[in-house]
Batch of 3 targets.
Target 1
Amino acid sequence: MTTELTISGMSCGHCVKAVETALRGVPGVQDVRVDLAAGRATVEGQASPEALMAAVKEEGYGAAVAAGQ
Ligand SMILES: [Cu+2]
């Protein structure tokens, strides 16, 4: 299962790492790709979108399920 999230508030590679690490820490996540320029995260695995968004928000960034899903 692939979940696409839009991430707001990322401004540099440090932010990308923080978001990536937060998403990888969610149970069920198998792979994470974060695109800084697009403000998007692609998450593979069985984690719920709610859990993924909560993890990102805990790090201080905004998260929403990307349109089209
Ligand atoms: Cu940053």
Target 2
Amino acid sequence: MAGSPNASNMVVGLDIGTSKVVAIVGQATDDGGIEIAGIGSHPSRGMKRGVVINIESTVQSIQRAVEEAELMAGCDIHSVYVGVAGSHISSMNSDGVVAIKEREVTPSDIERVIDSARARAISEGQRVLHVLPQEFSIDAQGGIREPLGMSGVRLEAQVHLVTAAANAVQNIEKCVRRCGLEVDAIILEQLASSMAVLTEDERELGVCMVDIGGGTTDMAIFTEGAIRHTAVIPIAGDQVTNDIAMALRTPTQHAEEIKVKYACALTHLAASDEMIKVPSVGDRPARDLSRQALAEVVEPRYEELFTLVRDELRRSGYEDMVAAGIVLTGGTSRMEGVSELAEEIFHMPVRIACPQNVRGLADVVRNPIYATGVGLLHYALQETRHGQGLKSHGGVVAVHKGRNELARRDIKEDHSTLARFKGWFKGNF
Ligand SMILES: Nc1ncnc2c1ncn2[C@@H]1O[C@H](COP(=O)(O)OP(=O)(O)OP(=O)(O)O)[C@@H](O)[C@H]1O
Ligand SMILES: [Mg+2]
């Protein structure tokens, strides 16, 4: 598998989730969408709350998923764009300022100002994942999205900085490399998901995207087209399953099955006369339970989760600026009653979103569980579409809003020095 790049213009997204590992192979279509050529999915056993807890199991899951995707796409996979999540991720808004050298903003000025915004103290053991520009100011003029070529003497940049625990990232890289694969880049999972499920209008109007997976709930807030806030909440579908297992005294795998088949997140939507069978532990006989009683077990956990999301949204200071409301994705958003319950808690419009702009296997991937996997492809294709074949090495991608240019660069492991920008290219964040 290792060695050369992937076949022709194929790119591969690898979502190492807590519930499943997914590899998705795709290529760009002329209209800016993605043609999916293959997908492989395998249950994930070696991850907990977004971090690797068992390298061997994770390697096996990746191998299986990648082999399946290779088989379906009919091509060899050599390198992958990988998602990362977990409580070890932190993010902050930062700014930087430089003098414009030639009185007209050049790519080098933009590079310097982003570097200076990036220079904010990063805690020990953290590694920069993304430096995502929000807006620029030139002299007294703020709100500039595309400063290149503009006149002035002083350039200022506001950026969203995302860092991750270096060890956690290294463990993910280790697992991927053990499978004989190169890491093209490591991408924050909610950034990837948001690229798959959000519309341009939502990002402009202001939106809070919430990817509720098995192990973590990942949030990303956008206003005026730029990412403003990211957060990870360590509660998701696994806890819901666990609650069912505990309350109904049934083994976890039965609890999971019951949850997916019958659970409802809003008690009053579930009928009290609709009965289900709950297998017991040991050789005790199965019991009858109403769907409403099951919903009574599930609802408090979803309510807790949405309350935590709402608190985080408030803390971020953007609560009043997300006019497009809440967009939910990830497997745990699929339960009946989720959007109704979320609307009650957020007092905002809520929609459940699936990956957009996909062709080929669209029926399969238009599912909230593939938001991150498909989003990784969007990210990768944006890079390759505009990167003129540039290759990154798990480095930083600076997403430049406005006319939407992406700048990327390599970053040394000790994040002491930055390599120069390798190039500029447009994207459509
Ligand atoms: N129809 C459904 N109703 C309720 N829950 C569901 C449904 N389908 C899947 N889930 C839950 O979604 C979760 C898996 O979601 P997803 O595949 O997005 O997670 P993941 O990406 O593997 O995990 P993470 O992002 O936390 O690392 C599991 O907890 C699963 O039980
Ligand atoms: Mg996920």
Target 3
Amino acid sequence: MYEHDYDQPEQLPMRRSRRTKNSVGPSRRGRLTEREKARLARVREEAYSDPVAPDGADRWSTWDRADQGPVPRPDWVVTELAAVDHELGVLKTGKEADVHLLRRGLPDGPQVLLAAKRYRSSDRRDFHRDAAYLEGRRMRRSREMRAIEHRTSFGRNLIAEQWAVAEFGALSALWSLGAPVPYPVQRDGTELLMEFIGSPDGAAAPRLAQLRPDPDELHELWLQLVALLDLTASAGLAHGDLSAYNLLVHDGQLVLIDLPQIVDVVANPNGEYFLQRDVRNVAEWFHRRGLPESITDVDGLIADLLTVARG
Ligand SMILES: Nc1ncnc2c1ncn2[C@@H]1O[C@H](COP(=O)(O)OP(=O)(O)OP(=O)(O)O)[C@@H](O)[C@H]1O
Ligand SMILES: [Mg+2]
């Protein structure tokens, strides 16, 4: 279990079944009495001063101190104060963030797999991208601005946290629209916890870029992408870094990920450019895999999406 080579997952066969949730074990939780809640809260409080997590776990659940995801919440989200987190391994390391696999639950209760995206605050980050992002988002407190400009460790951490905040907001907005994105469970500092897209044994869904779909499957995935783009545009948004690497395919369904740089198509002076670049990037992948340009009609699609986005 959990010993997959996450950076080079096997190509999975395409299936048409509906996307399934990743809850492991029973997903319904019992209701706690107020007294029991208070007792568990005390246990938790003591645990914070106790660095040793219980039963070989890596930490107590950080749920109650984090920004929590949009409601109504899926029923598999573990909200119990006495839950613990187990680190199961690294799904992917990147320049800007590392993504880890986490299991959260009560020792004898429901367990759920989560993807933990942890933004880096180290020198390895791409400061160019940070500068572009922070432009126009002036921080009011000059201490924070100075820390960022001087790249102190405090400042670097603030930047990393801003990315986590931005991605959590984007996922929350898109989830609430009904778009196929991982449910954003919580955000705490530079760490974002979201629904794990993959199988219950911890194998992550492959990126679109790794697949060689047959012509029918390719066409079906394109139609899903157009629906996804249409929904995003209807909210006035564009992904901003769309590619076949930021789309996962789970049980035949596309799932959009990696959204910290989401763009407001109308308010952003380069909004139109980002939307066009997204569509051309990903259409290019479909063409290389053999989908005819007469089907994708990229120029027509861009024109439609811009009309929708301008609402
Ligand atoms: N919710 C998730 N469920 C399963 N796997 C995920 C999830 N989120 C991310 N991953 C895995 O982690 C990889 C990196 O995630 P993401 O693209 O969000 O981060 P990134 O730092 O931008 O990485 P990159 O620079 O490679 O794009 C994904 O390609 C995917 O394999
Ligand atoms: Mg990515």
